[in-house]
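Morning!

This is the sequence you dropped in the shared folder:
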Amino acid sequence: MNIIVVFPKTEQAKAVRSILIKGGYLVDCVCGSGAQALAAANGLDSGLLICAYRLPDMMYSELHEYLSPRFEMLLIGSKSQVGEREVEGVVGLSVPLKVHELLETVEMMACVYARKKKKRRSAPKERTEQERRMIGEAKALLMERNHFTEDEAHRYLQKRSMENGTGLQETAQMILSLLGAD
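The structure's back. Tokens below.
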């Protein structure tokens, strides 16, 4: 997991980085402003951004707004700042910071991050209109020639696709070229 730490005071950011490194985490970048953090985040696919409530150039809420939705955010601030956060989905820790609380929170967020990443990878990709049309034509041909229901035709396509190690659209294309040649 990529980790970016951003605090207005460099010594605070370095202290958090040091705790994380001792806890077994790799910190990709330490920044002093929101703009630097966004530039670092743009170079990464996803990860965790740990930040202060107020940065020299923006508030945490603005940073969250500009940040990729593939990044989780951990806000560190006073009890009142953490308690009144108006951005949904931001995890908060209040100061004085306890090392074990920081590490446990980062561990929890790493688990959530891993689940989301796995879910993104396993989500089916969107098919183009042409791919959907080709699959529909292959199913229609199977329904007409083999007297399949639509569900049976779809299952047939899925089964052949898995057996051949090809995508559904590729299997539909093969069926259309083989059976549609009559």
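Headline: Residues 99-122 form the longest helix (24 residues).

More detail when I'm at my desk.
O.
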